[in-house]
Amino acid sequence: MRIAVVGAGFAGVSAAKVLRQSGFDVTVFERAPDVGGVWSRTRRYPGLHTQNDKGTYHLSDLPMPADYPQWPSGEQVQRYLETYVERFGLGSALRLSTEVASAELVNDETGWLVASRPAGAQDPLTVERYDHLIVANGIFSDPLVPSFDGHASFAAAGGRVLATGEFHDIEAARGKNVLVVGYGKSSCDVAVPVSEVAAQTHVVARELLWKMPRKLGGALNYKYLLLTRMGEALFRYLRLKGFERFLHGPGNGLRQSMVNSVGSVATRQFNLRELGLVPNGNFEDIARSTVSLGTEGFFERVTDGRIVVHRDQVITELLVDGGRPAARLADGTVLPADLVICGTGFRQHVPFFDDALHARLQDDAGNFMLYRQILPIGVPRLTFAGYNSSFFSPLSAEMAAVWTAAYLRGGITLPAEDRMRDEVCSRLAWMTARTNGRHARGTNIIPFSMHNIDEVLDELGLNLGPLTRARQWLLPVDPSSYRRVTAEMIRRTADPVSAISDDGSIKADKVRR
Prior knowledge:
Radius of gyration: 23 Å
Oligomer: single chain
Strand order of the largest sheet: 3-2-1-7-22
Structural class: alpha/beta
Largest sheet: 5 strands, parallel
């Protein structure tokens, strides 16, 4: 069975490793010249670091190097992934600098025709047939840069607009007036190094987000609060079970006190009240769209004036002021702006699918209808990997690959299609209500990362034992605890040859429904 994987970030390379170990012929297409996805040298911006510490941000069978700092840089994460490829002999499966132009599902029996060419070239397309396709291009692959009024005259005067992932050379900001748009991780990350070299650095924030200190009170590592099952349980999940019922029932007062105390510490530690940067709402709102760590040095540079934050503002137009590029904000303020760097989110779509296929994958609102964030309902021979923004993105992607391998080997008992559809619809409705619609088309599962992993592994009967999961309530989740899951899945499931019919479909008697 030939499997095509599109994307070579954490999701793509872990899928390649798990599926090759499971007996499949795998080809990974990646348009960048290196593995890494968002960590690729083609997409890294100055100041990029992980939000997780190195002990929680890795794949199950390869820890981060001991000599890495607690929060590795983007370059170090990319180097880790290169080591992973070398360790597991995945190089022969990779087609780097190769762009997938289209992927067409011929029919349910024939499979996919994947058309590719060298990235950036106009060479004739190479078309190949694959039995199964895994989409691992990621939900952070296509930056969404606003279309500003006045851009043409602004650009003619020398102004530039680009996404954070397109900003690679800090020297491009030296001596310039820089506007950073957004208040998420990438915007705050890039603003710090820019402020070291720019003439002025302004951050334009439509909405302030709550930030978590890496160390609360300068002592307690945040991983003991948010990267544990207890930290996850502080926020209300779709279905409560076990101790969660107490926390959101009789113990709700205690739970709220714990959450609010963290918010109070963050407010004092970052001097938010003095800086006028206390977000609207409560600290519990940190879970509504994304949980973001405070970038080291960001608030210190706001304090000393090297970064100026314009809260509750947007750019209404780009213009030329006195012969120089500038930007006008909603309150009428005009700021000089040689360079506008946008950390304004991403489009969630699959660029190599046509509109008809997108319509089969999404609901009327454009949300992906993916069972377990993996399996599209009603589209055969297709699964997704890494379509879930998670605290434990590497581990989540790897366990999704295990689920896919088990599915292809005939080792999953799936509900009927209408039940899976009902499950996805109810989850999307809950996500929409919980996040005010900010769930990235159904792909943002933060802060419920371990709930997602549990659901994936419970369905396979491969979850960790109760003692290990009990430790995870108080101690940060260690992905190494899951290193035997792939081997156990292979041991329990059918040989892939016996599970797959001559036409490439999965035998009905091998998939228990």
